[in-house]
Amino acid sequence: MMEVTNSNSTSNSCIHISTTTPEIRKSLITVSIIFHFLIFLLGVLGNGLVIWVTGFKMKKTVNTVWFLNLAVDDFLFTAFLPLSVTYTALDFHWPFGNFMCKLNTTISFLNMFASVYILVVISVDRCVSVVWPVWAQNHRNVRRVSCVSLCVWVVALILSAPYFIFRDVGPSYHNKDIINCFNNYALSGDEDTYNETHQAMIITRFLLGFVVPFTVIVLCYAVIIHRLRRNRTLANQSSRPFNIIAAIIITFFLCWAPFHIMGLIEMANHMPEYSSEILDDITIIGLPIATSMAFLNSCLNPLLYVFMGQDFKSQVHKSIHNILETAFQEEEKRSYIYTNATTQNNKKLESDTQL
């Protein structure tokens, strides 16, 4: 998701790092590689487990459909993360071709837009359930929620499409042997067009990917909190799912807010009237950190489910239990030729009793 530039572009801090602060650049690269690799492992395993449990082990409900979509979104992003790790490890040399350059960045922003708009519809859903419980009970069902989820994915894909269009590959400004994957907003080579498009992309991303959705979320939860304070019985019934969803939203806000703020600072730093060494230093250090925090969000939701959701924990425990039971049965079949039938049946009975 971090952008780099070449001779046709001046849009990112990575080149600044390589020319002004090589020690900081080296440290940030090392930390980023390790951090992103850990996020990849935790994200793929954690979200894969959530997909398995909510998709195959738990009864389909409105909440499990929401959580399943969040998990699929984060799993898709973390599955592509090794490409970014490789890119960083190769000193921002992109060996995977133009199409994968476009696809990798598009997946990153698809993750951002899909996540935040799934949180929006979850918040609206919770608000409707609290304010109009009878209507919600009669109209909320898995089929309708699945249709809403599909619409969210379509909207997120549309908002991510410009990144597929503008992402490009080209030789680095400082080393022609290094191929950068960068945002080529000036496809015609016009510097003025580049600046205008760059600003439009960042402002649009900030408004549609952060300000507008979180305004809706805050309004929904303001209504929810006001209603729950007036109805203690309803508050007790809604406490656990409310707390889980609220934790997911707060975590998303804390992880993505620095990224959007750094995007605005970077945009200002490339405007002649605001450009300065201070903003340059802030961008050099802050953008990689903010990007890593945004990546981190994709592996945190499974941890929230485990620590806050009793139903999810019980299903995970049961699923692991079934895996172990299956493994024991396979081991018994392999050892059958070395034992007689009576001994085998006794062992199976003893194993089943212990489990």
Automatic annotation (TrEMBL):
<dbReference type="InterPro" id="IPR017452">
    <property type="entry name" value="GPCR_Rhodpsn_7TM"/>
</dbReference>
<keyword id="KW-0297">G-protein coupled receptor</keyword>
<dbReference type="GO" id="GO:0007204">
    <property type="term" value="P:positive regulation of cytosolic calcium ion concentration"/>
</dbReference>
<keyword id="KW-1015">Disulfide bond</keyword>
<dbReference type="GO" id="GO:0005886">
    <property type="term" value="C:plasma membrane"/>
</dbReference>
<comment type="similarity">
    <text>Belongs to the G-protein coupled receptor 1 family.</text>
</comment>
<dbReference type="GO" id="GO:0004875">
    <property type="term" value="F:complement receptor activity"/>
</dbReference>
<dbReference type="GO" id="GO:0006954">
    <property type="term" value="P:inflammatory response"/>
</dbReference>
<dbReference type="InterPro" id="IPR000276">
    <property type="entry name" value="GPCR_Rhodpsn"/>
</dbReference>
<protein>
    <submittedName>
        <fullName>Formyl peptide receptor 1</fullName>
    </submittedName>
</protein>
<keyword id="KW-0812">Transmembrane</keyword>
<keyword id="KW-0145">Chemotaxis</keyword>
<feature type="transmembrane region" description="Helical">
    <location>
        <begin position="65"/>
        <end position="90"/>
    </location>
</feature>
<feature type="transmembrane region" description="Helical">
    <location>
        <begin position="244"/>
        <end position="265"/>
    </location>
</feature>
<feature type="transmembrane region" description="Helical">
    <location>
        <begin position="285"/>
        <end position="308"/>
    </location>
</feature>
<keyword id="KW-0675">Receptor</keyword>
<feature type="transmembrane region" description="Helical">
    <location>
        <begin position="28"/>
        <end position="53"/>
    </location>
</feature>
<feature type="domain" description="G-protein coupled receptors family 1 profile">
    <location>
        <begin position="46"/>
        <end position="305"/>
    </location>
</feature>
<comment type="similarity">
    <text>Belongs to the chemokine-like receptor (CMKLR) family.</text>
</comment>
<keyword id="KW-0807">Transducer</keyword>
<keyword id="KW-0472">Membrane</keyword>
<dbReference type="GO" id="GO:0007200">
    <property type="term" value="P:phospholipase C-activating G protein-coupled receptor signaling pathway"/>
</dbReference>
<dbReference type="GO" id="GO:0006935">
    <property type="term" value="P:chemotaxis"/>
</dbReference>
<dbReference type="Pfam" id="PF00001">
    <property type="entry name" value="7tm_1"/>
</dbReference>
<keyword id="KW-1133">Transmembrane helix</keyword>
<feature type="transmembrane region" description="Helical">
    <location>
        <begin position="147"/>
        <end position="166"/>
    </location>
</feature>
<feature type="transmembrane region" description="Helical">
    <location>
        <begin position="202"/>
        <end position="224"/>
    </location>
</feature>
<dbReference type="InterPro" id="IPR000826">
    <property type="entry name" value="Formyl_rcpt-rel"/>
</dbReference>
<dbReference type="GO" id="GO:0004930">
    <property type="term" value="F:G protein-coupled receptor activity"/>
</dbReference>
<feature type="transmembrane region" description="Helical">
    <location>
        <begin position="110"/>
        <end position="135"/>
    </location>
</feature>
